Amino acid sequence: xxxxxxxxxxxxxxxxxxxxxxxxxxxxxxxxxxxxxxxxxxxxxxxxxxxxxxxxxxxxxxxxxxxxxxxxxxxxxxxxxxxxxxxxxxxxxxxxxxxxxxxxxxxxxxxxxxxxxxxxxxxxxxxxxxxxxxxxxxxxxxxxxxxxxxxxxxxxxxxxxxxxxxxxxxxxxxxxxxxxxxxxxxxxxxxxxxxxxxxxxxxxxxxxxxxxxxxxxxxxxxxxxxxxxxxxxxxxxxxxxxxxxxxxxxxxxxxxxxxxxxxxxxxxxxxxxxxxxxxxxxxxxxxxxxxxxxxxxxxxxxxxxxxxxxxxxxxxxxxxxxxxxxxxxxxxxxxxxxxxxxxxxxxxxxxxxxxxxxx
RNA sequence: CCGGAGGUGGCAGAGCGGCCAAUCGCAGUUGACUGUAAAUCAACCGGGUUUUCCCUACGGAGGUUCGAAUCCUCCCCUCCGGA
Length: 359
Prior knowledge:
By secondary structure, the protein is an alpha/beta fold.
């Protein structure tokens, strides 16, 4: 029986803390599904350290290595897998996380995916069409400077059908327009090329073996779900929520704590060691605001804090919007002080008999 | 007490007689998102159930005007400089 536990929810709901305690109880290992925690040296700002750490400071033992951290003997994978200056994408994530999860399973442990990045989670669990279509750096450079209108025109010329498929918001989104053009222009290889020594992710192996028989080779474009199609596979998705005001309070407090923990110095160190301000801005949220601070656009810590809190509120809202559409999630309100035991009960049921989503 | 600058929607900050319920930004709300996703993009954002409709609004009270957030008078308050 193949089982995969997923903990999802917006930032500051305590996903990691919960996942750690569940891992201990159910003999699991975590896989972080977070688009920023996977960067090396972005530690405080991305909250790699579990919140409990501050309280139980002395009891915690943390070990770090490329690709994972270990907190009190529990492995957290997909931390520190990429240099912060480089760009890591969903494609990389699916590939890496997939093999990590496979390894956890081979060791007979329960894989627990801790997800804050909706797109990554979706790609990992369900696959993403066009994931095999690579980035075309030259094209992107060429298109990036253009005004939206030009991009719109260009896409319409390439494929009016594609243009019509897009919604009104995406039609004004340069990033989406560029990717759409990129996909149209790319001539996909029959099967994605692997670099030397690279192992094809399970999802892709499946995709290839499953469809290769049919004449229509274009199917490589349609990434087959990594796990959803596997018989006997069993997900359990646990979602964490909190009333809006409480969530904002938690976020605000966290920002204060992180400043206390040295988040500003972390940013300075990153910058001193060559991480550009521009790149920091791309990384968003705390690092984006911190970039402004280092540049002197923001002068006081008070201001830094306020701006950061506001940005993160917005981020949490976007996550909530995304996760609303996520299917088959068992949602728990973290302000219910029985929620942990409720979660544990659910997992026990799931482990033993398998939970019927319909129930 | 004198001189100077101001008081505008949650914040910040434009507007300086009609096109102003009031630019822009932030915050807030909702949403989009098929390789940058902590990114990127969209809509809404005084109240009234939608409205080319009504109401309450630009410190307060009066006034001038067909018409004022915008002009005048007085009052209250804030900030800077001088006593």
